[in-house]
């Protein structure tokens, strides 16, 4: 499947489910993940955050309410409308083509968004994130995985069905280590005996050579 069709299908799927997602509650383990990254931001004195795949803006609003300067991007216009309704600075933008200035953020937050990239795009987007960060910038990446998969998820309840890339823990850590220093890599078993788990990473920009 070509990348433009993947994006078009993702946009349609998330536009269609924007109000459902807006009304949904957040799982406790995701709340804990978000809180843990906020603590990392505060301890490192980081203030300007870019959220990739911001969805309804729930996480962006949380960080903004904690005094951070937040910019949100998402592929879905319906999602961006919800972000803006919450008072967030938000842009309809493809995370594989981020049109924002280099060295303009202290941190990047990506909760369950990078898993919609193809394997080829994943490494390219990591490089773009690195360029967007200021010195000693930090990154949160959270995504489902635990085994290798790339393609449309046939059991997906969304219409159109969404494209996902899942990584084994070893492969994901290998890929991010090509660009960033790994400060933390945690496995979250949110569904006992389920086929996948959640991969939680905190990364740091390497010093300029």
What would you note in describing this structure?
There is one protein chain. The protein is of the alpha/beta class. The protein is 36% helix and 28% strand. The chain has 7 helices and 9 strands, in the order H-H-H-E-H-E-H-E-E-H-E-E-E-H-E-E. The chain has helices at 3-16, 18-23, 28-43, 58-65, 77-85, 119-132, 169-177; strands at residues 48-52, 69-74, 89-92, 105-111, 133-145, 149-152, 163-166, 181-188, 197-204. A 7-stranded mixed sheet has the order 3-2-1-4-5-9-8, with helices on both faces. Strands 6-7 form a two-stranded antiparallel ribbon. Strand 2, helix 5 and strand 3 form a beta-alpha-beta unit.
Under CATH at level 1, the class stands as: Alpha Beta
Order of helices and strands: HHHEHEHEEHEEEHEE
Helix content: 25-40%
pLDDT averaged over residues: 96
Quickly give the CATH architecture.
Answer: 3-Layer(aba) Sandwich
Structural class comes to alpha/beta
Q: Major sheet: order of its strands?
A: 3-2-1-4-5-9-8
């Amino acid at each position: 499947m070509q990348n433009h069709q993947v994006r078009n299908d993702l946009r349609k799927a998330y536009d269609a489910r924007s109000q459902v997602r807006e009304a949904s509650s957040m799982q406790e383990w995701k709340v804990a993940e978000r809180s843990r990254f906020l603590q990392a931001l505060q301890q490192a004195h980081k203030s300007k955050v870019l959220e990739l795949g911001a969805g309804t803006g729930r996480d962006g609003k949380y960080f903004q309410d904690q005094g951070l300067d937040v910019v949100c991007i998402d592929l879905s216009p319906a999602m961006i409308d919800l972000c803006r309704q919450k008072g967030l600075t938000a842009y309809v933008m493809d995370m594989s083509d981020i049109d924002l200035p280099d060295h303009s953020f202290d941190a990047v937050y990506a909760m369950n968004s990078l898993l919609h990239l193809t394997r080829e795009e994943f490494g390219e987007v990591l490089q773009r994130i690195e360029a967007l960060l200021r010195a000693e910038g930090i990154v949160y990446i959270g995504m489902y995985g635990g085994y290798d998969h790339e393609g449309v998820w046939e059991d997906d309840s969304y219409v159109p069905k969404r494209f996902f890339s899942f990584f084994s823990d070893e492969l994901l850590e290998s890929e991010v280590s090509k660009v960033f220093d790994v400060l933390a890599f945690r496995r979250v078993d949110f569904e006992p005996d389920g086929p996948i788990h959640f991969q939680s990473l905190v990364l740091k920009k390497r010093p300029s050579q």
